[in-house]
Amino acid sequence: MSLQIELEHYRQTLIVRLQGELDHHTADTVKTRMEEAVMRGNVNHIIMSFKELTFMDSSGLGVILGRYKQITARGGKMVVCDLNPAVHRLLEMSGLFKILSIQDNESKALQSLEVAL
């Protein structure tokens, strides 16, 4: 299974929607695309939507942590949303819930960042 990556800029927030599997085969592509979008756009915050993500391994955790460090170094925040039970458990076991904000969906994620309409 491959991975589809959709990037959307909304105000000063980069919304990243992943569909498929985020693993060691796809992690570098996600990392690169997100880094480029943050560096070239006026991005203060990142929302990662995992609504269509079917699998994630430790490589995916590395992508999340790396982008978290990148955006917080710029004074921004990162929110993850639409977690399926397997991804939720992986994030919980990794300890990322201690630093990441978790929301039910994109709308609530935008509201939490105070960039919603």
From TrEMBL:
Domain STAS: 3-117
Keywords associated with the record: Phosphoprotein, Sporulation
InterPro entries, per the entry: Anti-sigma_ant, Anti-sigma_F_ant, STAS_dom, STAS_dom_sf
One of the GO biological process terms: sporulation resulting in formation of a cellular spore
One MF annotation (Gene Ontology) recorded for this entry: anti-sigma factor antagonist activity
Family: Belongs to the anti-sigma-factor antagonist family.
NCBIfam families, per database record: ant_ant_sig, spore_II_AA
Described function: In the phosphorylated form it could act as an anti-anti-sigma factor that counteracts SpoIIAB and thus releases sigma f from inhibition.
Protein name according to UniProt: Anti-sigma F factor antagonist
Species assigned in the record: Paenibacillus elgii
Gene coding for it: spoIIAA
